[in-house]
C-alpha cells in the first residue's frame, strides 16, 4: 500500500480530525525513528499512519482495537510486519511485540499525545514553542496529559533509546509537519 492510498483509507474510516492528526503525528515520529535506525521509512510511517484505522469501530470494545484494523488491512494486502505492529500496539490484544517496528509503534503512540499536550499549554499553541527540557518536566508531572502512559513511553528503552533521545526524535519529527498538525 502506498501512502496516498493509506491516507485515503484513514479519511474514509476515521471521522475525528484530532485522531487523524494523532495518526499523522505517529507517522512522522515513526519515520523519524526509521531514519535513526536506518530502517524502511515508508513501512514504519505506514504503521504509524494506519495504527488507529479501526478506532471508531472499536471504541466500545478496546480488546478488539488493533485486531479489527489488522483484519481490514489484510484485505488491502498491507505488509504483514505493519499488520503485526498494529495488532501489538494495543496491549489488550495480547499480541506480543517481537521486533523494532512493533516496539517503536508501541512507545510512539502515547508520546505524540504528550508532545501535543505540551504544545497546547503554551500561549503560542505550537510545537516550535517547546523543547526537550520542557517536555521532560511535563513527563514527570503525574497530572499532565494523563492519557499519555509514561510506562509505555519509557518502553523506548526496548528499542535502545534513552527517554531524552526518544523525546528529541519525536519532537523534531512532529515539528517537521507542524503545519499539517495545526501546531
Automatic annotation (TrEMBL):
Pfam families: HD. Signal peptide: none annotated. Residues 20-96 form the HD domain. It comes from the Bacteria. Gene3D superfamilies: Hypothetical protein af1432. NCBIfam families: HDIG. This is HD domain-containing protein.
Amino acid at each position: 500500500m502506498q501512502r496516498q492510498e493509506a491516507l485515503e483509507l484513514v479519511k474514509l474510516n476515521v471521522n475525528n480530525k484530532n485522531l487523524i492528526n494523532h495518526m499523522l503525528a505517529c507517522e512522522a515520529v515513526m519515520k523519524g525513528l526509521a531514519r535513526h535506525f536506518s530502517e524502511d521509512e515508508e513501512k514504519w510511517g505506514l504503521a504509524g499512519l494506519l495504527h488507529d484505522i479501526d478506532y471508531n469501530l472499536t471504541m466500545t470494545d478496546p480488546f478488539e482495537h488493533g485486531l479489527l484494523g489488522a483484519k481490514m488491512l489484510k484485505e488491502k494486502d498491507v505488509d504483514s510486519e505493519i499488520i503485526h505492529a498494529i495488532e501489538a500496539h494495543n496491549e489488550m490484544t495480547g499480541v506480543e511485540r517481537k521486533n523494532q517496528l512493533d516496539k517503536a509503534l508501541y512507545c510512539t503512540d502515547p508520546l505524540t499525545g504528550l508532545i501535543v499536550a505540551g504544545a497546547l499549554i503554551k500561549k503560542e499553541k505550537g510545537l516550535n514553542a517547546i523543547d526537550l527540557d520542557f517536555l521532560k518536566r511535563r513527563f514527570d508531572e503525574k497530572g499532565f496529559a494523563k492519557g499519555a502512559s509514561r510506562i509505555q513511553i519509557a518502553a523506548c528503552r526496548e528499542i535502545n533509546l534513552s527517554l531524552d533521545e526518544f523525546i528529541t526524535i519525536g519532537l523534531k519529527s512532529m515539528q517537521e509537519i507542524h503545519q499539517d498538525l495545526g501546531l
